[in-house]
Amino acid sequence: MPKKLKHRKSQRGGKLRGNATRGTELSFGEFGMKTLDMGLINSREIEAARRAMTRYVQKGGKIWIRLFPDMPVTRKGAEVPMGKGKGSPEFFIARVKPGKILFEIDGIDKATAKKAFRLGSDKLSVRTKFICKD
User: Fold this and answer.
1) Any idea of the CA torsion for 52, 57, 62, 67, to the nearest 10 degrees?
2) Pick from 21, 35, 63, 92: most CB atoms within 10 A?
3) CATH code at position 64
4) How many structural domains compose the chain?
5) pLDDT of residue 1
């Protein structure tokens, strides 16, 4: 969740189209996890994937998270009648397009990194693939 927002509630902002143009190449680590789908990733999914990967890698490597959930999603309470304005913010999401790098790892071998990313990708709602720097 962001520390500070310019606007507490945001508009949805239309369809996601095309491929990612920024954040598509490895910058920090030797191995990465790249998206194949377009979608919305919840902050809880990101944290669950990070925990799964960190637990598998243990003290072996360093993990970088390359996406941030900065868009609030609002919901109205159960059994609330129509009208009376927009609901309150419930959680935050990150929008991703195909080709965006989600996580990077360095300091471990390829087999360990691949297994860690597979465990992490099981927690996400988008399809991903493993990539290497070479």
Assistant:
1) -20
2) 35
3) 3.90.1170.10
4) 1
5) 80
Report the pLDDT averaged over residues 10-23: 90
CB 64 within 8 A of CB 133: no
Contact between 72 and 89 (Cβ < 8 Å): yes
Tokens of 39: 């979608």
Q: Is 54 helix (H, G, I), strand (E, B) or coil?
A: helix
Percentage of the chain beyond pLDDT 70 is 100
What domain range includes position 101?
40-75+87-132
The phi, psi pair for 110, rounded to 5°, reads: -60, -45
Tell me whether residue 23 is in a domain.
no
Q: Residue type for 28, please?
A: F
- Beta bridge pairs of residue 51: none
Cα separation of 106 and 28, whole Å? 8
Q: Quick count: other Cβ atoms within 10 Å of Cβ 37?
A: 12
**In what side-by-side order are the strands of the sheet with 88-96?**
39-42, 88-96, 71-75
What is this structure's pTM?
0.89
